[in-house]
Amino acid sequence: HAHQPNDVIRKIVLTIDTMNPRVKNVEYAVRGPIVQRAMQIEKELREGLKKPFTEVIKANIGDAHAMGQQPITFFRQVLALCSYPELLNENMFPEDAKNRARRILHACGGGSVGAYSASQGIDCVRQDVACYIERRDGGVPCDPDNVYLTTGASDGIVTMLKLLVCGEGASRTGVMISIPQYPLYSAALAELGAVQVNYYLNEEKCWSMDLSELESSLAEARKHCNPKALCIINPGNPTGQVQSRQCIEDVIRFAAKERLFLMADEVYQDNVYAEGCQFHSFKKVLFELGPEYSDNVELASFHSTSKCYMGECGFRGGYMEVINMDAEVQAQLSKLVSVRLCPPVPGQALMDLVVNSPQPGEPSHITFMKERTATLSLLAEKAKLTEQILNTVPGITCNPVQGAMYSFPNISLPEKSIKEAKALGQAPDMFYCMNLLEETGICLVPGSGFGQKDGTYHFRMTILPPTDKLKILLAKVKEFHQKFTQQYS
Amino acid sequence: HAHQPNDVIRKIVLTIDTMNPRVKNVEYAVRGPIVQRAMQIEKELREGLKKPFTEVIKANIGDAHAMGQQPITFFRQVLALCSYPELLNENMFPEDAKNRARRILHACGGGSVGAYSASQGIDCVRQDVACYIERRDGGVPCDPDNVYLTTGASDGIVTMLKLLVCGEGASRTGVMISIPQYPLYSAALAELGAVQVNYYLNEEKCWSMDLSELESSLAEARKHCNPKALCIINPGNPTGQVQSRQCIEDVIRFAAKERLFLMADEVYQDNVYAEGCQFHSFKKVLFELGPEYSDNVELASFHSTSKCYMGECGFRGGYMEVINMDAEVQAQLSKLVSVRLCPPVPGQALMDLVVNSPQPGEPSHITFMKERTATLSLLAEKAKLTEQILNTVPGITCNPVQGAMYSFPNISLPEKSIKEAKALGQAPDMFYCMNLLEETGICLVPGSGFGQKDGTYHFRMTILPPTDKLKILLAKVKEFHQKFTQQYS
Where does the record place the Aminotransferase class I/classII large domain (chains A, B) (predicted)? Predict the structure, then answer.
């Protein structure tokens, strides 16, 4: 084993030259350099430094509560009861909140959310998840043994990839991911040493999936690796589209024909805003295609407490359901998750409440529905507003935000700005977003952090800021874009 | 890429033959086959099946609340306040609990524990951790920038190993771990493809570390891999020893001389029971050895909310502190943790309370101290009781349980039972523990799940059951051991 000369001088073991090179290849734009600079600017503002703005507006991450969205009262009541069961003796909470808390606590070791749960998740929570999936999918059966609670959806996705990825050289596992993608995927693939196989979403057709693109991407990949899995994010992140039923059918037929393991990231399943759009779960469509597909195609689908109307990112709750997984492999999956003991129990409790929310006739039902509807309506409004205002800007083209929490508009950048960016060693849209941040305090993530067709530029912007701030943000982006275009023309 | 014939028949992608072989190599005894059988037996008992016992007593895992330990009132009050801040308006909570909750909420995005935190953890929590470490270590400075909050200690340990492990063939990274070990280490090393380098603890000297053993283990390992790191668990899991200050000094000097990155798993730092034993943090000893060591030796130390007097495993809270880490590597670490967004925020809040507990003069201080002391005194009693009773059994030899939560007694097994186990393809102590479980309902983990010297046999038993149950458990173990010895003699 070689010692680098600088190790000897500094007498340390772990240097940039000796560390795991796969970790060095990891990139995660959503919390990358632009966000670090935004945090620095916030600190500068607090310290009294003069800027052309008084606050940083962060539209870089799907973090609803940080943007002022209020938690669902019922959820938080039950969580408080689970944390401090003495509160069950008080008269301040509705009976349905108390019942949910009692049921969860009864399922916990020693009646405490401080005990480890089963590694796959608390039994009754997995049963509730199974019932929820059956209701959602019009009765398609769901076996709680196929449900695994997770530490957010990210944890489930990485766990599935760990099972799939192996091999070296031409037999290295390839995993197909959409471009633009959510960078958890590229980061996990880099860390695991898998081949990232890109397929491009069709921006002209509202970020839909093209069968011909999937086919050519796969054919190309097969020349140098072993593609095993196909990942889909629906509703889309960062692109905000909602895939049509037809498209999902096509993808399933493609996966069956080409023998690919499907991974469906469906964490935005309640975030559908556009007229005529509807969420179709991959599982439901799979079963509607009949036993030729439903008995054979392997599918893992992922959900989370972090998005939809609840936006409870901090609790790191989630689940995955696996379908048609080989029994021996599933035993390996169960063993693998046991090493990390269990997902956080408060997150499991929250996941339970999401799939087992107050029902008609229960005391909390009306308030719950009011809060849920208000949040989703507001998001729908902001989705529309974002699309409309961005499309008034010459040089910005924005697809409808049909779902999820993001717009991913195409931005025309003047040649001179592209040259200047390249001279600085920056991606042109990173240069654009950095300038936007410095001049306006608005924090967006450049399209290059998600991937995009060569020669096109984008940014991802969440629709989460409160309406008044969102309007300011959009007006500032408009003004900035015009100024930037002029400046570099 | 080769298709296995059975893949074609079953038309599935992911089989035991095509999956990641590293995952197949993972083993985790603490939740292994014996625990699965215990859960099955519990189900059988519920269904009315007759057994020679009426309940399963689980002493397989360090899960205090599951064994009836009560949570610390103050911690749970603050967690309830954080979950449902409306409670701040009620008069039912002490002012110090409200103040802690307000401080934590103020540090959360949008004032909600449902927002993502910074990936490294909430700023003020990391500051509180740093103050705690400074107090604990008699003023040795701690920089909050070197503190990373984690999803339990396991998460921190795996993250550090990810940075360290790389290479193929003779340059594969080797990581030294104690035998017996906590099987998270072997599991993580298997998954990452590192070489597990065993060093044996000295059972005759109460599971202490021998310098000569470290030296010979390292010399041997250097013939076929690149040993980079040395892991220590102190107080010990599964062996319950507390390392002396001298021993820690020796280990640090050894790491410095041999240029090994130190990983100190110190999650049991408050669990020290034996007269004359004291917890010495690796960091404190490192700094007391002077700048030759404190400026050079790289150390990561790990703590958690799951053990000590709080036992809050379900919240998955923890932190790690890194010392003398190369700045570029630390930037990579910060990037790596950002991919998983953040540790669970309720677990971060709980970690904050552990390091910033009620102080003299605060309204909750007396109750807090009473609860803390009662729990630790009871554990000390049970540690003593376990050692004493086990040592009355002919054929069982138990070292003092100086700390942590486990005894790891040596058991003599009759030759005939060893033969019978081998005929069944089982480790002899697995055969023993399985028989114990079937006959008495007691669930222990065989020593083979942790590693032990060839030809010796052990089991790990937690000291956590309530005293009355612990006494029954120990009496049953005694009776069983005598019967088993007779039966196979």
Answer: 90-475
A79 falls within a domain: no
Residue A15 lies in a domain: no
Q: Which two tokens stand for residue A164?
A: 């799939």
- For residue A91, give the DSSP letter: S
B229 contacts in A (CB within 8 Å)?
Answer: 13
Are residue B346 and residue B199 in the same domain, yes or no?
yes
CA distance A64 to chain B (A): 7
Give Cα B366 distance to the centre of its chain.
29
Q: Distance (Å, rounded) from C-alpha B111 to C-alpha B101?
A: 10
My answer on whether A115 and A233 are in the same domain is yes
Same domain, B161 and B218: yes
Question: Is the Cβ–Cβ distance between A393 and A482 less than 8 Å?
Answer: yes
Phi, psi of B158, rounded to the nearest 5 degrees:
-65, -40
- Say if CB B233 and CB B182 are below 8 A apart: yes
Find residue A154's DSSP bridge partners: none
B-chain residue closest to A10, CA distance: B296
Distance from CA of B396 to the nearest CA of A (A): 29
Residue B116 shares a structural domain with residue B245: yes
Distance of CA A319 to the CA centre of its chain: 13
Distance from CA of A158 to the nearest CA of B (A): 10
Q: How far apart are the first and last CA of chain A?
A: 54
Q: Nearest CA to A395 among A412, A409, A379?
A: A412
- CB-CB neighbors (< 8 A) of A61 in chain B: 116
Do B186 and B220 lie in one domain? The reply is: yes
Return the H-helix or E-strand segment holding A331: helix A327-339
- Residue B270's SS3 state is coil
Query: pLDDT (tens digit, 0 to 9) for every residue of chain A, 489 residues total?
Result: 444 444 445 578 999 999 999 999 888 877 778 988 998 999 999 999 999 999 999 999 899 999 999 999 999 999 999 999 999 999 999 999 999 999 999 999 999 999 999 999 999 999 999 999 999 999 999 999 999 999 999 999 999 999 999 999 999 999 999 999 999 999 999 999 999 999 999 999 999 999 999 999 999 999 999 999 999 999 999 999 999 999 999 999 999 999 999 999 999 999 999 999 999 999 999 999 999 999 999 999 999 999 999 999 999 999 999 999 999 999 999 999 988 889 999 999 999 999 999 999 999 999 999 999 999 999 999 999 999 999 999 999 999 999 999 999 999 999 999 999 999 999 999 999 999 999 999 999 999 999 999 999 999 999 999 999 999 999 999 999 999 999 999
* Residue A72 lies inside a defined structural domain of this protein: no
Q: Is the domain of B200 the same as that of B335?
A: yes
User: What is the C-alpha to C-alpha distance for residues A404 and A407, in angstroms, rounded to an integer?
Assistant: 9
Question: Could you tell me if A297 and A375 lie in one domain?
Answer: no
Structural domain including B447 reads: 21-61+369-487
